[in-house]
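Example record

One chain of 123 residues, shown exactly as stored in the release files.
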Amino acid sequence: MSTRKGETHWIIPDGYIPPLSSGEQLSHESICILNLNEQEANLHISIYFEDQDPIERIPVVMKGKRSNHLRTSSLELNGKSIPVGVPYSIEVESDLPVIVQYSRLDSTQPELALMSTMGYPLK
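Predicted structure tokens for this chain:
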């Protein structure tokens, strides 16, 4: 009997790249993806904003049996990327079940804050 490990559709409603950092650590966010399948997973990541058009279906390939911490500041499609200091939400779609977590390192003050949460899986 095989057990499904992960889902194919995930939502992360709270995204925000702080515009300022203090000290040596740069504030950043990551979509942490785990592919437990033997095969590559083909993902599409969409970014939604409050007051501008989304950046839809950014392609990402995840190798089988691998983990990837994908910085949201590195996501780009047709020259469009996520601006700093602007709230956004994330949708992750995959052709194979994967596991999605979200992490934020906020270094806007000397006392660093790290937040991590699981994405919301849609079935």
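Notes: The mean pLDDT is 89.
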